[in-house]
Amino acid sequence: MAGIEQNEAPGQLVLVDGSSYLYRAFHALPPLTNSRGEQTGAVYGVINMLNTLLKDIQPDYVAVVFDAKGKTFRDDLFAAYKAHRPPMPDELRPQIAPLHQLVQAQGLPCLVVPGVEADDVIGTLATQAQAVGLKTLISTGDKDMAQLVNDSITLINTMNNTRLDTQGVIDKFGVSPAQIIDYLALIGDSSDNIPGIPGVGPKTAVKWLQAYGDLDTIIANADQIKGKIGEKFRAHIGQLPLSHQLATIKCDVTLSQTPQQLLRRPPDRDALIALYQQLEFKRLLADILDENTAQSTSDSAATNDQITCNYQTIVNEAALETWLDHLQRAEAFAFDTETTSLDYMEAQIVGLSFAIKPGEAAYVPLAHDYPDAPPQLARDDVLARMKALLEDPDKAKIGQNLKYDRNVLLNHGIQLNGIRHDTMLESYILNSTASRHDMDSLALKYLGRSTIHFEDIAGKGAKQLCFNQIPVDQASPYAAEDADVTLQLHQHLWPQIKNHSGLQRVLEDIEIPLITVLSTIERQGVLVDAEMLKQQSHELCSRMAEIEQQAYEVAGGAFNLSSPKQIQEILFERLGLPITQKTPKGQPSTAESVLQELALDYPLPQLILDHRGLSKLKSTYTDRLPEQINPHSGRVHTSYHQAVAATGRLSSSNPNLQNIPIRSPEGRRIRQAFIAPPDSCIVAADYSQIELRILAHLCGDQGLVTAFHNDQDIHRATAAEIFAITPDEVNAEQRRNAKAINFGLIYGMSAFGLARQLGIERGAAQEYMKRYFQRFPQVESFMEQTRETARQQGYVETVFGRRLYLPEINSRNGQRRQYAERAAINAPMQGTAADIIKIAMLNTHHWLQDSAIDARMIMQVHDELVFEVNTNIVNEFSEQLRKRMSSAADLAVPLTVDIGAGANWDQAH
Question: ∠ CA 64-67-71 to the nearest 5 degrees?
Fold first, then answer.
């Protein structure tokens, strides 16, 4: 055939069973979706399997073959062919088209031939390749393909990297490749609904084929087969020809391409980049962009529009003066700090980078102090010259996580003003459900650019260098790129935000101003009593030891209460407790939710939970907090995060102040260690039932609105409505049930969930909810309308316009769809509550800044603000604070604020 000379080595053909790959990837990998809720897991799995195969084999010729839609000739032969096989899963069907596109973009021929199966196309190509001396490797997990194996055709299973040649088929099946069709005809195939002979399994089929050689000879000797199996064989012998025909791979399909035409082409990089961006395959995108970068010139960025990079290193006065002039003239500029530490209280500036227009940036090294470091401008002199520019509120600054930069600049006596844009927050406002908002991830996602990572220049692990130790010639491109990419990200993200007035309002009026407020709180820090915490650690140790002894007695012996494996053995093997849930590997689960359910009826799970809770308090707080006291300030300084929680709530770390329990005595004791300095006290202000008040505002139910306006106990009022009694007649249990319903509705709790929480029958819980909705009909209407709105537009909004996207709201997977529906109901309330507390923080901060009042905001925890206040002005301060917090939003019901004061945080409640 054309293309191969007689004396030319023909190379190798690799044929990939794409349909086999597709199903294996779908079932082997956990569900994966992009930010739009599109299923991508099977595509990701197949592409990774293909990449691995091609890297290992490096074939000259290749094709990826998929089954076509519709019936094949086998359906005409046997109407029940594959009748038992379930239809393609709904989550898999939409992944086929993008997979085909990716295969083609990889430079691989993608074959889909109507009327036959992928096996038949592969069999035909392999047979044709053999005829021209071209060896073939078939990548599949399908046992039927073993019939094709010979000296020229081999199978490979990429799941376990095993190959099957002729001897491999004999070793695996007990018969030769030439006998495989007869073997399949005898045993049948339940997945394809090939009949076979009832009762004949692999061992019997192998025995007969080894004795008689082939199917025709077995049939000719049917009378010699003894026993019941012989009777079954003779009774069903008539269906063997059909089974044989169905199991035979067709090797004479008319194809438009010959094996020699299946040349592997170079990948279409532009198409791959576009598809990886669309599917949000970040690692694969980064890999191909890194390849592009390696192939490009050193001054060219690997972006889609190939912006030329002109990065400068400023090491003399003239260059600095030129850049200062550019910055002064610019309408806005992006900047970034390079520092010695991630601890904002300790970090010192090593250098500054700036960008004014895409592709042009500069780095000013100031404190690289490794041996033989080049001369640099004096840090104090440069910062002094830049102080006015950085402190100018009318000069707009753009950054990525500018709160950190503000904190670090304060270490050098510079008050950063003019914070106008933050790309981390712009990304977060556009889609808070996205998993990452760091610069590297955003550059990859929005710019198609693989940036220089810190580890690339600093190394990893214990030997990682601090920035001041990194050579200037490596540090400069990294730092300048940070400023450049930040500017480009802003130019990409900001127009999208400006198109939505609600998003712009949330960003400009709440999130950006909050940077300064949070920075101020962080640097203020909070006093903790280290000695008290150390004493609590000793007491927790003693209590944990007591629980361990009690657990040993119940379990009948000592065991490690921190070992899931030992807990599993004790609970489910030794004690025989019921298994309510299993791990993905099929083992009985010891997750907290499982233990909580078992603890309702058995003592040991509760002891384990108690031990876990105390252990976490000890390791996270009583042991750790004293170690986190800053030696210079004598205080603990947390870090608040604006771009983590999808609903807009703040989170904190190092330490996490959001998770200190308030309901347990041990948690409250930890709060006692958060103390006021001399002549001051702690004031804590907490919104009362804010999410229920927001629910009343959003749904407009007159019953709820009236109860809040009359300052009624909302749970008592709800119980009175549900049980048709007066509020005075409501008993403790009825109020408890009403409270569970009130808060359960906010989180989309079902009747089943309510029944579990209250320990009642599901029918009774259903009746409670039915009565609730009868008494508060607008609540049910609001919930259904919210679900429908979410289904139609894919997101819900807070009162202030913050959006929460719900990619799974229309999922065909019931569990994921129901979770999204619950989130749709909760998000407007929790998100609005987050917006309100942030507005209250802004109002309070400005008041404290503008007045001479002796008080400082030191913590924000959920719906609560905590202050240090001069003891002499607590009452005056509290009243002024109440006014500002209660007026943070104009709702249909009043915002009520509970305020307390004390020597420590616990007393302030």
Answer: 160
Q: What pLDDT sits at residue 283?
A: 82
Contacts of 675 (CB under 8 A, 6+ apart): 527, 528, 529, 682, 903, 904, 905
Q: Three-state SS for 325?
A: helix
* Residue 808 confidence (pLDDT): 81
Same domain, 543 and 618: yes
Give which of 330, 500, 502, 494 is closest to 418, Cα–Cα. 330
CA distance readout (Å), 881 to 526, 616, 686, 877, 885: 19, 34, 11, 6, 6
pTM above 0.90, yes or no: no
Distance CA 323, CA 292 (A): 31
C-alpha pair distances (Å), 85 with each of 549, 592, 840: 55, 38, 59
Q: Long-range contacts of range 298-305, CB-CB < 8 Å, 24 or more positions apart? A: 301/359, 301/449, 302/448, 302/449, 302/450, 303/447, 303/448, 303/449, 303/488, 304/273, 304/447, 304/448
Give me the residue label for tokens 């010639």: 473
The packing angle between helices 714-723 and 732-746, to 10°, is 100
Residue 84: what pLDDT? Answer: 67
Locate the DSSP E strands across 527-620.
Answer: 527-528
CATH of the domain at 455: 3.30.420.10
Q: Is residue 683 part of a domain?
A: no
pLDDT at 302: 36
Residues 486 and 534 grouped into a single domain: no
- CA distances to 626, 668, 902 from 866, in Å: 20, 15, 11
Q: In what helix (H) or strand (E) does residue 857 lie, and over which residues does it extend?
A: strand 855-861
pLDDT score, position 86: 73
- Report how far residue 512's alpha carbon sits from residue 490's, in angstroms, rounded to the nearest whole number: 14
Please tell me whether residue 727 adopts helix, strand or coil conformation: helix
Residue 290 pLDDT: 67
483 and 603 part of one domain: no
CB 607 within 8 A of CB 320: no
Residue 84 is assigned to a structural domain of this protein: yes
Tokens coding 150: 């010979």
Instruction: Locate the DSSP E strands across 51-185.
Output: 61-66, 110-112, 135-139, 153-157, 162-164
Determine the Cα–Cα distance for residues 309 and 478; give it in Å rounded to an integer: 12
The answer to whether position 198 is within a domain reads no
pLDDT along the chain (909 residues), means of 10: 37 90 81 79 89 85 90 79 75 89 92 91 93 90 88 84 87 91 86 81 90 88 86 86 88 90 86 87 81 41 56 95 95 96 95 95 96 95 96 97 97 97 96 85 83 89 92 95 96 93 95 98 97 96 95 92 90 88 78 85 92 92 95 95 93 91 86 95 95 94 90 87 86 86 79 78 84 88 92 92 88 79 91 97 95 93 96 96 96 95 93
How many Cβ atoms from other residues are within 10 Å of residue 28's Cβ? 12
Domain count, the chain: 4
